[in-house]
Amino acid sequence: MSGKWTYIRKRLFQMIIILWIIATILFFMFRLMPGNPLVAYIEPTFDKEQQDILMKQFGLDKPLYYQYIVYIGNLFRCNMGVSFFYGDTVLNILKRNLPNTLYLTIFSLIAAYIFGIFFGILLAWKRGTKFEKAGNIGTIITRSAPQFWVAMVLLVVFSFKLKLFPSSGTSNAGVIYANELQKLTSPDFWKHLFLPGLTLFIYLQGLPTLLMRSNMFDVMGEAYVEMAKMRGLSKWRIMFKYAARNAILPIATSLALGIGTSMEGNVIIENVFSWPGLGKTLVDAVVNKDYPLAQGAFFLIAVIMLFMNLIADILYSVLDPRVSV
Q: How far apart are CA 325 and CA 320, in angstroms?
């Protein structure tokens, strides 16, 4: 047990170092970009003195090294600054948009892994058949298809042609949810979530499907499976009760990784469907040269990805005693 705690402390320390490096890169990357970051505030009628006042208000009149020290110090206090474009604190904006990203990710991820586990078992059961070959090809195609292309196809078919689902947002025009509970219990919200969720599902289901199929092939040759066959048990029972239960271990740990990696897909999907989550917030911030908001969104996504990698490592060491940390 002490070895596991030492490993966890080591991984946490590594995570802090990586986050510091990411924060440093983000700071210099945005400040070295061309253009005035206060373009959203500065009007053509502003004279030089008024522009200087704004620069001083946001601390941009200080030397770069001083801005960096302040930035890192504020980051440790969870103070990400004030958005140049919205005038609100970055933390408030991220807190408003993060739930939408989590709903999209969790809904798609759970559906993808449930489908992937059962479909992977089915492909292993039908090994060597035309069904398996077709399933493998279909899974690889959906896994490798560009997400923006899949999103556009779904939009054209289900939104523009069949008009079954809305094309953007989380609600119809004029509808405002009083709280998150009202949002989650609204059929209108789930109707808006369906297409972006389906797009992310199509991308995510490939990993658990192929991983489960491969793991099933590995465990089917184990002694306990052979013993079950000798006892005359049905193939379906052997597949589920004996093989699948042991093959599912890497799937459980990859689920944590899936939450982190799905953030990459969210950036594209949220912008295609105008879904107000972290991905869309990030792109809008970059377009508007809103450096504090862009930095905050990038940093939060990095935190989520690194944290889920840590959870995956810990889960694997806990679920499989053969793995030494």
A: 11
